[in-house]
Design a protein that fits this description.
The protein is α/β, with parallel strands linked by helices. The protein has helices at 29-33, 48-58, 80-85, 88-101, 113-117, 122-131, 148-164, 189-202, 218-222, 239-249, 262-277, 281-308, 323-335, 352-362, 379-387, 405-410, 434-452, and strands spanning 5-6, 9-10, 38-43, 106-111, 136-139, 172-179, 206-208, 227-233, 253-256, 316-321, 340-346, 374-375, 397-400, 414-417. It folds into three domains: 25-164, Rossmann fold (3-Layer(aba) Sandwich); 172-283, Nitrogenase molybdenum iron protein domain (Rossmann fold), CATH 3.40.50; 307-452, Nitrogenase molybdenum iron protein domain (Rossmann fold), CATH 3.40.50. The chain contains 17 helices and 14 strands.
């Protein structure tokens, strides 16, 4: 939906963003940190690397930095000297020092705004190290290029081209590369990737999940070219990577735009992927049957609570966040719970070429539910849209972020934080997707609802 008039509210263009909902391109440091055994090296000004950590990994579920994030990443901390004379020498010195004191399976140099604006040739600095056989690559991720979604695609391509490199061998029939949520930015990425890997392996795949605990790190990245196909599970993130892999390694890809939540969507997802790969239907259906049996056992007992409405449960909802989770959660709560959508606000600034496809998905949320979606990044307008939305006579549930908490209090609703920033959630490995993650989401939604009446 164009930003002109929404529910009678005049939306004006803005040249600034209040209550930011993503990191800058340099935030792709945390795509690197999400690869077991990898360490980012930041060629940027003082404080840039720390700001990415505090935003993406700390005040966002308090996820921690792990082996390669947090206080670990080396930084040039470019100052006046580097601005005037360039920072190539300082970067070379930093790389040498890093190699002496920090053990890593892969080093990835990421550039910030200063280095790119003054014209530092980072490739010429990194190249001699690569020629010596050191596992290092670089990505030009100046913050002015976009957000950390943009940076993620730049980094994955850099690792593929400079570290994984060319391959002309055989493909493994059941091996699949998975490209889905943005690590760290998606607060629940660790648990979500574990569930995706579990259910795909359950129907017979060998899965390159690539990020998080379930990944074998750089050894797994080296096997990317051997995969039979690439699986993109998101409305748009990962598509550029999949297209590049299609050209580089002649790998087809399947784009599945909806991250599945609950039995209905998850079973549909598994059948679609299995059909694409030509898996044996008997094994696929057996796995689905067992998962659904467990799922509906628990849902049957939950239904006793849901049917009573003792606490005046919400009927309508609003949702604010990145396109992947906004679509996934909406599909689930509309089809599984029968909640009525009031507004959908997407804040991750998807590229223009993918917006029609995203809007199409929302027009078919269910067989009888078609909704418009609003693309807006500025928290000021998010607030105004929510305040101007008719949620009916019952307090609504708002799926959103920490930024929405004060706004929702004004009309007596409850917030379920589903994305960046989530500063009132402590997240270790919780998942909201698949068969098992759906229960965690149900528990969160209705605990919030009944707590409001206490």
């Amino acid at each position: 939906m164009s930003l002109t008039k929404i529910n009678g509210l005049e939306i004006l263009p803005t040249h600034s963003i209040n209550q930011v909902r993503y990191g800058c391109t340099l935030g792709a440091m945390y795509s690197v940190a999400a690869i077991p055994g990898a360490i980012p090296i930041a060629h940027c000004g003082p404080g840039c690397a720390d700001k990415q950590f505090m935003a993406l990994a700390f005040y966002n579920g308090f996820q921690g930095g792990g082996y390669g994030g947090g206080a670990v990443p080396p930084s040039v901390n470019a100052g006046e000297k580097e601005v005037v004379f360039g920072g190539n020498e300082r970067l070379e010195e930093l790389i040498k020092s890093t190699l002496k004191i920090m053990r890593s399976d892969l080093y990835v140099v990421l550039t910030g705004c200063i280095g790119e604006l003054v014209g530092d040739d980072v490739g010429s600095v990194v190249s001699p190290f690569q020629q010596r056989g050191i596992p290092i690559c670089y990505a030009e991720t100046g913050g002015f290029k976009g957000n950390n979604f943009t940076g993620h695609e730049l980094v994955t391509r850099a690792i593929i081209d400079q570290f994984v490199k060319d391959y002309d061998g055989k493909k493994e029939r059941r091996l699949v590369n998975v490209w889905t949520e943005l690590p760290f930015h998606n607060t629940f990425w660790r648990g979500d990737l574990a569930e995706i890997k579990r259910i795909l392996e359950g129907i017979g795949f060998k899965v390159n999940i690539l990020f998080g605990f379930g990944s074998k790190g750089t050894d797994e990245w080296k096997t990317i070219p051997r995969a039979k196909f690439n699986l993109v599970i998101s409305p748009w993130l990962g598509l550029e990577t999949a297209k590049h892999l299609s050209e580089k390694y002649a790998q087809p890809f399947l784009h599945y735009p909806v991250i599945p939540i609950g039995a209905r969507e998850t079973s549909k997802f598994l059948r679609t992927v299995a059909d694409f790969a030509g898996l044996q239907k008997a094994k696929v259906e057996d796995f689905i049957r067992q998962e659904e049996k467990e799922y509906y056992y628990y849902l049957e007992h939950f239904s006793d609570f849901y049917a009573e409405y003792w606490w005046g449960l919400p009927a309508r909802y609003g949702i604010v966040g990145d396109s992947a989770y906004v679509l996934a959660v909406s599909k689930f709560v509309v089809n599984q719970l029968g909640l009525i959508p009031a507004c959908h606000i997407i804040t991750d600034n998807p590229p223009e070429q993918y917006r029609d496809g995203i809007e199409k998905e929302f027009r078919s949320l269910s067989h009888d539910v078609s909704e418009e979606v609003i693309f807006v990044e500025d928290g000021y307008w998010v607030k105004k849209i929510l305040e101007n939305t008719d949620f009916g006579h019952k307090p609504p549930i708002i799926f959103g972020t920490t930024w929405e908490r004060d706004t929702v209090k004004k009309f007596g609703g409850q917030v379920v934080e589903i994305g960046f920033p989530a500063s009132y959630e402590v997240v270790i490995n919780r998942s909201y997707i698949g068969y098992r993650g759906a229960f965690a989401l149900l528990e969160k939604i209705f605990t919030a609802a009944i707590s409001a009446s206490a």
